[in-house]
Design goal:
Blueprint: E1 13-24, E2 27-39, E3 44-48, H1 55-61, E4 70-78, E5 91-92, H2 101-106, E6 111-114, H3 128-139, H4 144-157, H5 163-167, H6 176-188, E7 194-198, H7 206-223, E8 226-231, H8 234-240, E9 243-248, E10 251-257, H9 258-263, H10 268-275, E11 327-330, E12 333-335
Parallel strand pairs: 3-8, 3-9, 6-7, 7-8
Antiparallel strand pairs: 1-2, 1-4, 4-5, 9-10, 10-12, 11-12
The structure holds adenosine-5'-diphosphate and magnesium ion (MG).
Adenosine-5'-diphosphate is lined by residues 22, 31, 49, 51-57, 67, 69, 297.
Length: 347
């Protein structure tokens, strides 16, 4: 390597071979089955797929908040540019004790998470203001006056007016959209490097949804954080993301920059998702094409393509006989489908 060789920037987070198994009465469910992805500093990665494919388990695994029955393996290399982690090598978040001090200093402070249902983030027993202030007091300052000032400032940043009054209200006094904004303000009050947003706008009506997405984009520009945006909605992906990972039955079946996914989708599942996407100004009379069939439950699955039963392009004797390797379409585009693979043994 010469001195001029430019080192590509290391990703903020590199997830490798993430597996989550859950013991069920009728066998082992491989709910997340060997997931790899990277999140770059300041960028947005979209994780998209139908309900039940393992998006929430994957995103919660990053900060170690899945329930005990989730047996998790793999590595989650976190390369912070903030002290004290910035000094050393990447830190494997999965190797940390999920109840230990280290992960607790990262969770909420450097990696924050917001959910579809804000009531999972707020306790109904305390005022919104107190809860945001509490997060700031744990992670940022011990000074109560300063913490309150920061909390009020954050409420203002997410577009909540009359902050002094709102500060003293309880979660039930906020509308759904306002609670979502308040949760975002709590998540961002510690200026995290990574925001994990799991279906953050799914419960909101479209107008409020657009406002919340706009807000996230604006705050990302202001604070420079990376976002992992989990959604089943490709419209949101198009609006928000730099990179996309398409998930199906516990696996990432296709991954590429956002524009590439929309212009040049490869996996039959990605193509199906795109066809089922409503188009602005499209012919409403035309029925949306949706993907037939439903996602199977990955309990005692034989090694085969999980999309086999629903795939119009399946190759019998190939796709149902072995697990599917990832094929590199280009430097930035990978797909897990035998239509593009040289490794079609087993016919
Ligand atoms: N604690 C659990 N016990 C048993 N099954 C679970 C548990 N958590 C999730 N699952 C199952 O794992 C699969 C993936 O779940 P999840 O990650 O929540 O999917 P998504 O967020 O993509 O809708 C689903 O089939 C779900 O029912
Ligand atoms: Mg989910």
């Amino acid at each position: 390597m010469t001195a001029e060789t430019v080192q590509p920037q290391q990703p903020l987070l590199r997830v490798q071979d993430l597996k989550i198994r859950i013991q069920m009465d009728n066998g082992v469910m491989n709910a997340v089955d060997g997931v790899d992805f990277e999140i770059r500093k300041g960028k947005t990665l979209g994780l998209v797929g139908e309900s039940g494919c393992g998006k929430s388990l994957t995103s919660r695994a990053l900060i170690g908040i899945n329930p005990k029955e989730c047996e998790t393996s793999g590595t989650i290399a976190y390369r912070s540019s903030q002290e004290p982690e910035a000094k050393g090598e990447a830190l494997d978040l999965l190797a940390l004790d999920p109840n230990g001090r280290k992960i607790r200093s990262i969770r909420g402070r450097k990696i924050a998470m917001i959910f579809q249902e804000p009531m999972t983030a707020f306790s109904p027993m305390y005022t919104i203001g107190n809860q945001i202030m509490e997060a700031i007091l744990i992670h940022r300052t011990k000074n109560k006056k300063e913490a309150k000032k920061l909390a009020l400032e954050m409420l203002g940043k997410v577009g909540i007016s009359d902050q002094e009054k709102r500060f003293d209200q309880y979660p039930h006094e906020f509308s759904g959209g306002m609670r979502q904004r308040a949760m975002i303000s709590m998540a961002l009050s510690c200026n995290p490097e990574l925001l994990i947003a799991d279906e953050p706008t799914t419960a909101l009506d479209v107008t409020i949804q657009a406002q919340v997405l706009e807000l996230m984009k604006r705050l990302q520009q202001e604070f420079g954080m990376a976002i992992l945006l989990v959604t089943h909605d490709l419209g949101i992906i198009a609006e928000m993301c730099d990179e996309v990972a398409v998930m199906y039955l516990g696996k990432i079946v296709e991954q590429a920059p956002m524009k590439e996914i929309f212009r040049n989708p490869k996996h039959p599942y990605t193509k199906g998702l795109l066809r089922s996407m409503p188009r602005l100004g499209g012919n409403k009379a035309k029925r949306l094409e949706s993907i037939e069939g439903s996602v199977p439950i990955p309990v005692n699955m034989p090694p085969m393509c999980g999309f086999y039963d629903r795939c119009k392009d399946r190759i019998e004797g190939v796709c149902n006989r072995q697990s599917v390797p990832a094929t590199q379409i280009s430097d930035t585009h990978t797909v897990r489908c035998f239509l593009y693979s040289d490794q079609k043994g087993g016919q």
